[in-house]
């Protein structure tokens, strides 16, 4: 019996694969192989020459609707004033819900935002014959951190090695390198710098130990309790105090009812083992990430959050959300592509020196969505709102 013919390979040009001609060749190939017409996929405004380093085998675009929410009043250390927020989504009611929360935040004077710290990690593991050798190695690393820093920083003009954490398991010593990465997210930057540092360590440390570049405690594109404690990306807090009269007038439920609902949510979150005791941080963050050219896979880390509230003696409601691993960039990656750059420019966040500002805008947006959804659940119009606005079918 003859072997079945192999399916044809995707067209490529080894000399220059980022041209309109090659994109059109691949689109025709995809249509022929799949039978799909691809009338909309092939219509876009991106020059293929801009996509080197962003997308291989380019043949079209995925168009996602962008809704506008705001104004969102922010009183941050980096983000100040009213902002209009672009949210890319296909989920009905999402933009309307975030817009409602932003109206409330603006009504009470805005949301206060604070970036606590911001690092990017790579975490190699060094291997030894026994636990005592691993312990001695950890002490050697502490004594030679300045030399390790020099080796790491020789690979980058932007990144800075801030500190190295040590964790020992059995005969292994895990090192968690923490970098300042400017306005880039910095995953590739930190990987390259850590590789250089590990090569220097392997050459100079006693016994010339061998290593694995990632021992998994950097938890790249994965949530972890390590990130909740030690931060990956930005640790940022958004907070507001809302008078009871304003809450009832604009949202419906009283602050006391919302506080009771928070107690229930905390208990349910503990029962479920969730990594976020809030409502839906992933919704707003994903919509912002798509609009502004972030690496959307970083939602796996960035959506984790801690909501803390307090019902004050006068009936006011203190509401905060802490996002411990918000991974964002305003330079590099997908941020420079035309659509994404325009959305960042709407926020005054494109380019260098803007990443803390963008982190504060992200956190404030999340808080707006938390307030709106929590109020809708307590007021009883959550389902009816989705029924009215979020059903794209007959």
List the helices and strands and how they pair.
Blueprint: H1 20-34, E1 66-76, E2 80-88, H2 94-107, E3 111-122, E4 125-127, H3 131-143, H4 145-153, E5 160-169, E6 172-180, H5 187-204, E7 210-212, H6 225-230, E8 233-242, H7 244-251, H8 255-272, H9 281-292, H10 299-302, E9 306-311, E10 317-326, H11 338-346, H12 355-379, H13 382-389
Parallel strand pairs: 1-3
Antiparallel strand pairs: 1-2, 3-6, 3-8, 4-6, 4-7, 5-6, 8-10, 9-10
Tell me what the structure shows.
The structure is a single chain. The N and C termini lie far apart (51 Å). The longest helix is centred in the C-terminal third of the chain and has 25 residues. By secondary structure, the chain is α+β, with helices and mostly antiparallel strands. The protein has 13 helices and 10 strands. It is globular. It has 3 domains: 33 residues, no CATH class; 208 residues, 3-hydroxy-3-methylglutaryl-coenzyme A Reductase, Chain A, domain 2; 89 residues, Hydroxymethylglutaryl-CoA reductase, class I/II, NAD/NADP-binding domain (Alpha-Beta Plaits, 2-Layer Sandwich). A hairpin with a 5-residue loop joins β9 and β10. The model has no long low-confidence stretch (mean pLDDT 95).
């Amino acid at each position: 019996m003859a072997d079945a013919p192999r399916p044809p390979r995707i067209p490529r040009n080894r000399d220059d694969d980022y041209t309109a001609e090659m994109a059109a060749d691949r689109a025709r190939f995809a249509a022929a192989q799949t039978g799909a017409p691809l009338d909309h996929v092939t219509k876009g405004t991106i020059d293929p020459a801009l996509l080197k380093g962003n997308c291989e085998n380019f043949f079209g675009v995925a168009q996602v609707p962008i809704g506008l929410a705001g104004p969102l009043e922010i009183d941050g250390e980096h983000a100040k004033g009213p902002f209009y927020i672009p949210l890319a989504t296909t989920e009905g009611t999402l933009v309307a819900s975030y817009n409602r929360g932003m109206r409330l935040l603006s009504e009470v004077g805005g949301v206060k935002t604070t970036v606590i710290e911001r690092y990017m990690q790579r975490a190699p593991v060094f291997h030894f014959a026994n636990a005592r050798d691993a312990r001695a190695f950890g002490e050697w690393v502490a004594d030679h951190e300045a030399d390790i820093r020099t080796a790491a920083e020789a690979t980058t003009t932007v990144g800075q090695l801030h500190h190295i954490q040590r964790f020992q398991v059995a005969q292994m010593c895990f090192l968690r390198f923490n970098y300042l990465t400017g306005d880039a997210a910095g995953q590739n930057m930190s990987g390259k710098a850590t590789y250089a540092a590990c090569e220097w360590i392997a050459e100079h440390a006693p016994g010339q130990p061998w290593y694995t570049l990632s021992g998994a405690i950097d938890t790249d594109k994965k949530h972890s309790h390590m990130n909740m404690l030690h931060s990956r990306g930005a640790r940022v807090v958004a907070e507001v105090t809302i008078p009871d009269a304003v809450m009832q007038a604009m949202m419906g439920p009283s602050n006391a009812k919302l506080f009771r609902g928070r107690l229930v949510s905390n208990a349910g979150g503990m029962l479920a083992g969730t990594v976020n005791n809030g409502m839906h941080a992933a919704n707003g963050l994903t919509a912002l990430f798509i609009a502004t050219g972030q690496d959307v896979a970083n939602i796996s880390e960035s959506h984790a959050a801690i909501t803390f509230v307090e019902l004050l003696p006068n009936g006011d409601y203190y509401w905060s959300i802490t996002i411990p691993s918000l991974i964002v960039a305003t330079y590099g990656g997908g941020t420079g592509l035309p659509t994404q750059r325009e959305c960042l420019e709407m926020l005054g966040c494109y380019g260098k020196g803007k990443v803390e500002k963008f982190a504060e805008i992200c956190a404030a947006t999340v808080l707006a969505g938390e307030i709106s959804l929590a109020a809708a659940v307590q007021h009883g119009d959550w389902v009816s709102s989705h029924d009215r606005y979020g059903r794209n079918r007959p």
